[in-house]
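Batch manifest, entry 17 of 40.
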Amino acid sequence: LNRWEGRRVLKDEKGNIIDILPSLTEWLKVPDRTKIRALLERLAFEAHQRQVRISGTADVPEDDLLLGLVRLQQNKDVNSQKLKEFLVNRAGLLVPRGQGVYTFSHRTMQEYLAACHLTRTGYPGKVAHLACHDPLRWREVVLLAGARAGSGAEFALWALVDSLSPEKASEDCPVDRQWGALLAGQMLVESANYQEVEEINQPKLDRIRLRLVHILRTGEPPALERVSAGTVLACLGDPRPELMTIEGMQFCFVQAGEFWYGAGEKAVLKDLPDFWLGQHPVSNAQFAVFVKDWGYGDPRWWKEAQKDHYWSKAGFREGYADEPRCGPFVFVEPFSLPNHPVVGVSWYEALAFTLWLDEFAHRKGWIAEKWHICLPDEQEWEKAAHGGLKLPSQVVRQSLCDGFDLPRVVTLANHSPLREYPWEGDFNPEYANTGETRIGSTSALGCFPQGMGPYGCLDLS
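Output type: structure tokens
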């Protein structure tokens, strides 16, 4: 932009000035430089809007560009041919792509100028409409528009948030409003002080949080967008007690009975009693409660690690580590986000957590003496993942603090006892965080509702 709005100084190898090129505004003798800026913003918006592909830069017809500039110029010596030569020689913001066509030097510049145009002419209503109805095209433009508007006054950013996810939107949150909520959340994380929200904006923030949870639970947007929603939710404050608290941890009932253990010709029938399995893996937020409760310093939880010389009063020390630690091995974000599964822990640490949780739940009076919390073994995990010979007609789950009993569950004949995955049918990258899903890290728990096992457990694959 400086090349268009300011002079360009050319220097030789020794730093001596050899030429000073006038700016486009100066060369055209346009008294008001904002008029050229407005023209470029409008051309960028129109080009972005009609662009067929949603990657790369768009074409700007030469006639539109030259006609717009000629109308603004007051230099009588300028004609279309001289203007074309000037534009080619300056070759900065716009570059020729072919006969009669220019394009922006970078897509980011195109998106930024389009965002500037929208903040002047269609903010916030038109911005929100474009975002909700064609989000893949307008995502970056919308985020840039919000940042630009909010840089002057934060209320302008919250106005766009309100338009993207209005209060009166239906409770079932249709797909277009899900996109609106996701973009609004990303905007708050990138451009707002969401940790110190004014009282008038608190309902808007709460509304965004709940709609992000809705995105995760419905599984309607693509997996990568759900993962993004989970990351944004972690920053704004995940309201799900089943992931963020100990007492809210959800457990799913796995009814007693036979199941196929193993695969193919090696599969054998096994019989297990009733048990409950956590609906989700343990989150970072939940494991942090154990750490805060002096979990790494209490010898009661570390008998196995003591026996194998991995634990002392100084903390847990793995064989390759130089120093003992008093918490999980620290990974960078997103691995460390509170609503992600805890990583950087060994089997000894997972065992210590369950021993602590068992004592904690009994001390709180949440579970009866006959029930105990432990790590699942391989057979329990496999049955929970693909089901038994008979499957329940409904999922039965409850929170840790509600106590446990043996519910009466109606079972149905299972027509596919040897599921290859927790869900029925073939592999689907939308159903689990795998290499094919192309996430490359952990994701917020609950991002893959379609991958739920027959008893209601998630993230088993």
